[in-house]
Amino acid sequence: MIAYLTRRLMQAVLILLGVSIITFALLYLLPADPVRQIAGRSATPQTVESIRQQLGLDQPFVVQYWRYLTNLVSGDLGRSYIQRSEVTELIVARLPASLLLMVGAILCEVALGLTMGLIAAVKRGSVTDQTLMVGSFIGVSAPQFVVGLLLLYVFAVQLGWFPIGGYGTWRHMVLPSLTLGILGAGWYSRMMRSSMIDVLRQDYIRTARAKGLARGAILFRHALPNAILPVVAMIGIDIGLFMSGIVVVESVFGWPGIGQLAWQAIQRVDIPIIMGVTLVSACAIVLGNLLADIVAPFIDPRIKLR
Amino acid sequence: EEKLDPNAKQGGAITITYKDDVATLDPAIGYDWQNWSMIKSLFDGLMDYEPGTTKLRPELAESYEISPDGTTFTFKLRKGVKFHNGREMTADDVKYSLDRVTNPKTQSPGAGFFASIKGYEDVAAGKATGLAGVTVVDPSTVKIELSRPDATFLHVMAINFSHVVPKEEVEKYGADFGKHPVGTGAYKLAEWTLGQRLVFERNPDYWHKGLPYLDKITFEIGQEPIVALLRLQKGEVDVPGDGIPPAKFQEVMADPAQKARVVEGGQLQTGYVTMNTTMAPFDNVKVRQAVNMAINKERVVKIINNRAVPANQPLPPSMPGYDKSFAGYKYDVAKAKALLAEAGHPDGFETQLFVMNTDPNPRIAQAIQQDLAAIGIKASIQSLAQANVIAAGGDKAGAPMIWSGGMAWIADFPDPSNFYGPILGCGGAVAGGWNWAWYCNKDLDAKAAKADSIVDPAKADERYKLWGEIYSKVMEDAPWAPVFNEQRFTMRSPRMGGDDKLYVDPVHIPINYDYVYVNDVQ
Amino acid sequence: MTSPIAPDAPLAAPVIAKRRAGVLGRLLKRPLAVIGLIIIALTVAGAVFAPWLTAYNPNEQLFDGLTLEGSPLPPNAAFWLGTDLLGRDLLTRILYGARTSLIIGVVANGAALIIGTLVGVTAGYFRGWIGGALMRFTDLMMAFPALLLAICLAAVFQPSLWIVAMVIALVNWVQTARVVFTETSSLAEREFIDAERTIGASTPRILFRHILPHLLPTIIVWGTLGISTTVLLEATLSYLGIGVQPPTASWGNIIFENQTYFQAAPWLVFFPGAAILALALAFNLVGDALRDILDPTQRGRA
Amino acid sequence: MTAAAGTKPGAAPAAPQPDTGGPVLTVSGLTVSVRGDDGERAVVADLSFSLARGETLCIAGESGSGKSMTSLAVMGLLPQPQARVSAGSIRLGDLELTTLGERRMQAIRGNRVAMIFQEPMTSLNPVLSIGRQLIEAIEAHTDLSGSEARASAIEALKAVRIPEAESRLKQFPHELSGGMRQRVMIAMALALKPDVLIADEPTTALDVTVQGEVLELLRDLQREQGTAVILITHDMGVVAEMANRVIIMRNGRMVEQGSVADIFERPQVDYTRELLAAVPKMGTGRANAAAKPAEPAKPAAVAQVRDLHVRFDLHGGFFGRVTRRVHAVEGVSFSIAPNETLSLVGESGCGKSTTAKALAGLLPYSGDIAVGERNLAGLGRDERKAVRRDIQMIFQDPYASLDPRMRVGELVAEPLLIHNIGTPKERTDRVAALFERVGLSADQMERYPHEFSGGQRQRICIARALALRPKLIIADESVSALDVSVQARVLQLLKELQNEFGVAYLFISHDMAVVENISDRVAVMYLGQIVEMGTRDQIFANPRHPYTRRLIEAVPVPDPARRRPRFARLHSEIASPVRRVGDPPAKLDLRDIGDGHLVAAH
Ligand SMILES: Nc1ncnc2c1ncn2[C@@H]1O[C@H](COP(=O)(O)OP(=O)(O)OP(=O)(O)O)[C@@H](O)[C@H]1O
Ligand SMILES: Nc1ncnc2c1ncn2[C@@H]1O[C@H](COP(=O)(O)OP(=O)(O)OP(=O)(O)O)[C@@H](O)[C@H]1O
Ligand SMILES: [Mg+2]
Ligand SMILES: [Mg+2]
To answer: What pLDDT digit, counting tens, does each position of D301-317 carry?
Structure first.
């Protein structure tokens, strides 16, 4: 186990290194000049050059990257060009909110998606199945901005069940999690249905039925753990997909997560923030996948950690 | 002393929302829509404007004197002004603040405004650490010598970049001063939860007795404008910092109760299309004039729900120097076609129109595109992130046409010169500059310098006239096609009081925090 | 000693000499699949014949297309699906937009699916360094923010439909690869694959004839869900200046441009949204039917 | 559907039957139909029988004759969506089962009727521990507390002679050998103490010694609980040993029914006689041996295996190091000449399949394997393909070795296609001919593997292996699921091919009678090593190693008159090939005791 973890963590470090190199290189190639954003309209070329020097942006790529990397090792992600604050500070302030939202969203989509997929698989071909299918496709096809606003309008403005955006209590979390969850639920339910159908025709399900087990026991104890494996792998993947959804949802609900930070940074070529957020989300994705891989053997004992 | 509003009561708290993060509250650095007026409430400069107007008045300076040649300004400081940390502000702080903002290490985007101060070049080049032209005469007197007469200098003393900061706090927080601002302003920062909210509290020691009215202002960050409006309608928010979102504009205006709470005002803003005068075929003035005539500005205005007025010159109407009599280029497709033919393009040509990607700019660009197509100019649209458009504009061969909306010019201060220098003058027509038309007219530059050397306030009208002429000449060369001047529509909750003009204050955007109040305090 | 063994006599049932009908033939026997095929056909026809189907030009900002206040018109006799914020006919834009969206949702998404499947199958089947390297590369790509890649590509290339299609294909294959990898590695352990090896089946044959068909259900799920996702992703990318530029219509960007107006002008979001949904559903119906048809254990299902 | 005349819809299903002598289970006019591409066809037609308390009914008969379908119909577990009961009634006591709702059926399954399925490999849930699976079955039908259920699960495991029952509860199916899984399945059915137990080929995966014990257990259960047993088997030895009454089925119909003595002594129908005649009997092989032409001077071996080792590393412990190894094959050497049949026998888990797979090039091994003149190690891609053509393997589990998504016709034609033999037309013809030779009809080529019975699938695998006319066929338990008549015909076919083309066989089987019938030489394996090897006569007439002797003694005799009163139970535990790293098993020395008869020291 420890050996496995060490190996995986080492791989993770390599992956992060790769991500940082590629990101850094891409940002380096970007034609937009951050110095001009900093210097403002009235700056003289002299000032511009001076700022460029101070930021070390006049250095060759390798030097810049090496400096970034050495700082990174000591936990220093640099300072934002626009906000002028420590990137670490900005991310640390916003990360908990995003993680919380992620957890909420994953709970939502897993709960919704699995239930829908399960029912659809069991009632395969029926009207219920068709309805659920249309439902999951609506979830996937509906623009999140609209879904978010709609939920907000109905449940917060009209019914007043939840606050209109903001952050703090569990009530703030419901609607944004749901908005993200509706999209994910579409995916999960289709995946679940597909793998459930496969599992339901396996011989061991027949055995379980032959034992005279109740339908619930067959579905939840025998079929679900077998069908859920691809879904667990999906949760790892999901974290990556999640990063793009978060931008929209966070802004609709005024959720103080890193999505908004990233989006603003992208718009304004705030390279240190882009780098920081990229690395943090890469970390999350890598850890998510690792977690999915670690959990898998607990669900299916045939799987070995390799 | 200024008269206070007899209806205003002190106390109460309001909530204001913004979509984007507040980057910094360091007056030397903050240059965004949201932090601009926040900084104005936390800090003070030597000069300021009368609330809701563009009229200059002394602020931290009690009085000032200008030498006859217009190169020496002597400011007498107000006594008993204290920073939020309790220390009294002195002339040394003024000097320190100006030295700091011009020092390249500070990386201030506003350093260039101080270029007329003696010794600026040395500081900018890193050869000196202080401005030779700024001297502390005594603890309450500062003398500033300029290297050339500068009529806008009092305005410069009113912009945020020149606001006074206490040295000890700056040194204490270093680069994080922007997160721990300490000034002399009406409010002080009480709380800043990154990404969520900022809370301003009344500065009890504010030198301007009786101000501010409000006890507390909460800025909630990261709110989508549409959602902010929903919350306003529910009474959770008092002012939507980003204004009324276009998508909700019709709805609000259709409801008399809501409409009554909308305040409309002019803005020191012009939306225009730049044409790269160094790039064929826009190097031909006839082509540029044809473009000016081809754009149906009325329709463009209609597309943004009439939230603007058509423009025919660079200056917005509320800017001194605006020429009411100027006719500009009338919308005339036939004539535009004729001009194009004269220029040797009877069948038009293909070109590109760059635009920033936030609504409504791409829509406006499409309307312009269609108008240009009517005279044969096939402009393909490049709708890009702000930084990319700016990069293209600063590249001589980058962008033939740019729609300025969303990026450029809301004036830093209400003076006609503010629309010239970096965006129309030769100085801005350099790689990485902001003169996206790459328009460089040496005669006009000279004339501009001449106008700005008329320092005497008594001769202001003469100066404005001169500027008016400059812009008329610019329009003859037509490097821009001015399209409209945006109107501001701010909305306030029913409980908010204060003169309407405070809500469309031309310099305090979106509202003048120091003077607004709420009606429901006991 | 050479007499053959008597075969099992078929019992009772008449052996109708009906040989297997083609896959298409069997698809056509399923009403739901037929509906799906019809929707797909209509979409393609709409895209191809758009100029003949509508009197309007998709980019023409009609004089009478806006109210005096500059608001778009709701569906009416002249504009069946209403007009957009610039006074253009929405129906026309949706028809023309189908061209873009089909390329994104079907071609780019399909390409991503194919790349992902190939990578996943290869990595899952070849355990050694090839598989390891491919999977590490996939992990890297997965950890890498797609949006950033897109922005940088946009900065380097001229924005165009094909760039955005390429970007989508480049970023979307990753998830498919991961899922396919997992499934392939368990399939590769199955005994019938060993059996194929003993009869000397070549690796491509094993991969394409024996492993791929088993991946079909997964591929169908990912492929059909990918349609909606990619069509919407295109809009985000176009917004960032990578994809089709205004005024070219696509379903995604019609929604994207107008989503803040969904209360003031719901038709601007509803109709393109419905188009995306219908296309995705149609592919799903066909996919589901295909899955059943190609899955022999499900035969006999009505 | 039959009019459910005697059904009392509200009757309590679980009321214990008084021992009135009335039948527990009555099947009458049962017809089961399956839907395929070519419409519906009946696979069981008009079947009627009844079962009394404490009785053992054996169903024997042709493979594919509907035995499994019948039992699935009783359980209400016919494969969906294809199959259904189209006529007839199944009554449990007074209760009509064919029309019973799923919910009420649930209460009956396991509780009153339990079943052991034909394919034990896939019938256990891979993600649940066997303890879990056992206990839940008990809990579903009794109101025992958790610990009581656990106790009775342990008891059930002990009853099927799984050693260390208590710790086994925590294990997962994949951690058990095939034979153990089979026994877990049996334990599960027994623990429920049902009124009726249906056992579908419960001992196919077991070697004769364990088979005997399991059968003994069934008898115990019957004695103690009065359970009625339906035993489906093609092993006439088992029938003779166990049955009170016997049903013989063919083509979905019952052809004969009678007491075990009647069937064996006075068969009425030709088919039954044919079946009985086909039963391989120990000793008859030697008699037939004369038929085989005398071996010519020793030609070059088709395959030569020298000092073969196959080990599987088990990663374990906290650091994921290799702590233990399965020494599946430990230094096996043999060679097979053309035209020769070498049989490999031994108990379940002794490494027979592993040896076969290594020979077929499917496992990494150490040692030398030469095919023809070529050593398998270090062959190029093309050469390996050529060698593949010469060696074909028939896998132990026919279902698992057929791609479920391909039609069986395509599957059988595939080797021809791969090796570019013939035109498509010729290939089809050849496949059709092969089908007929293994006793399937050509029109079944269009079906998929899951549409066949266990025995039919096995024949498909055989046809596939024959398609290329290889030089060596490795047949791993290839006739175990076939009824004796088909088995006889298939064995006959194999012999014919040997005579025609000189094919050599490596024949792996549990069934000593079959082995005795078919082999030229026999190798007995125990714990990964060969303990005795020699010609058939040497092994069967003169077994020297005690393990060999036990194997031969354990073979049930297909004669009810010679029924053994009680099968001797073993008390030693089954030895395990799993050992710690650095602790390889001692190498056995084989000694030639004359004429190439090799025996390990013991
Ligand atoms: N799912 C299915 N679909 C179609 N036909 C099937 C299906 N399952 C079995 N059959 C057919 O039903 C018939 C009876 O099968 P069954 O499994 O009952 O045979 P069996 O008597 O148990 O034979 P064996 O001894 O070989 O296991 C066979 O001809 C088989 O081809
Ligand atoms: N992939 C594997 N990993 C670990 N152990 C294995 C593996 N395959 C086989 N074994 C073990 O190797 C030993 C020999 O297995 P093998 O399948 O050769 O037995 P067999 O003689 O064919 O038995 P049976 O008669 O039950 O088929 C068994 O103990 C088995 O558990
Ligand atoms: Mg069977
Ligand atoms: Mg075996």
So the answer is: 788 888 899 887 766 54
Mind telling me how many Å the CA of A210 is from chain D's nearest CA? 5
The chains found to touch D (3+ Cβ pairs under 8 angstroms) are: A, C
Whether the pLDDT of residue D186 is over 90: the answer is no
State the DSSP code for B88: B
User: D125: Cβ–Cβ under 8 A, 6 or more apart, which residues?
Assistant: A204, A207, A208, A222, A226, D133, D173
Residue D46 lies in a domain: yes
For atom 8 of ligand 2, the residue with the nearest CA is D354
Give the ligand whose atoms come closest to the C-alpha of residue D357: 2
* Residues surrounding ion ligand 4 at CB below 5 Å: D 353, 396
Find chain A residues with C-beta within 8 A of C302's C-beta.
Answer: 125
Q: What does the alpha-carbon distance between residue B59 and residue B39 come to, in Å, rounded to a whole number? A: 15
Query: Would you identify the CATH topology of the domain C85-301?
Result: MetI-like fold (1.10.3720)
pLDDT (0 to 100) of residue C19:
42
**Backbone φ/ψ region at C127: left (φ over 0), alpha (ψ -120 to 50), beta:** alpha
Determine the distance in angstroms separating the CA of B301 from the nearest CA of chain C, rounded to an integer.
9
Average pLDDT of the residues in D526-544 = 88
Query: Nearest Cα to D419, choosing from D472, D363, D464?
Result: D464
Atom of ligand 2 nearest to the CA of D347: 25
Q: Do D106 and A215 touch (CB under 8 A)?
A: yes
Instruction: Please state which of the four CATH numbers 2.130.10.10, 1.10.3720.10, 3.20.20.70, 3.30.110.10 is assigned to the domain occupying A93-299.
Output: 1.10.3720.10
Please state the φ and ψ torsions of residue D383, each to the nearest 5 degrees: -65, -40
Distance of CA B448 to the CA centre of its chain: 20
Mutation pick for ligand 2 pocket among D175, D312, D365 (CB with most ligand atoms within 8 Å): D312
CA dihedral (B419, B423, B426, B427) positive or negative: positive
Contact indicator for C203, C147 with CB cutoff of 8 Å = no
Residue bearing tokens 């009207």: A127
Residue D144 belongs to some domain of the structure: yes
The reply to whether residue A143 touches residue C269, judged by beta carbons under 8 angstroms, is yes
ipTM for this prediction = 0.82
| Residue span of the structural domain in which D234 resides | 25-277
Triad C261, C262, C264: Cα angle to 5°: 60
pLDDT digits (tens, 9 = 90+) for A22-69: 888 888 887 777 887 777 777 777 778 888 888 888 888 899 899 889
> Domain map of chain C by residue range?
85-301
CATH number at residue D50: 3.40.50.300
Question: Is the whole model's pTM more than 0.95, yes or no?
Answer: no
Q: Are strands D521-526 and D341-346 parallel, antiparallel or unpaired?
A: parallel
D109 interfacial to chain A (CB closer than 8 Å): yes
Residue D538 inside a domain? The answer is no
pLDDT bin (cut points 50, 70, 90) of residue B350 is: very high
Amino acid residing at B176: D
pLDDT tens digits, A256-281: 888 888 888 887 788 889 889 888 88
Question: Based on the structure, what is the number of domains in chain D?
Answer: 1
Answer whether residue D542 is part of any domain.
no
CB contact under 8 A, A142 and C183: no
Q: Which amino acid is at D509?
A: S
Tens of pLDDT along A195-217? 898 888 888 888 888 888 888 88
Is the peptide bond prior to B212 cis by the omega test (within 30 degrees of 0)?
yes
* Separation of alpha carbons B147 and B370, rounded Å: 49
Q: Where are the domains of chain A?
A: 1-75, 93-299
- Is the pLDDT higher at C156 or at D61? D61
Give residues (CB < 6 A) around ligand 1.
Answer: D 34, 36, 43, 63-69, 79, 82-83, 118, 450-456, 481
For residues C298 and C263, what is the distance between their CA atoms, to the nearest angstrom? 45
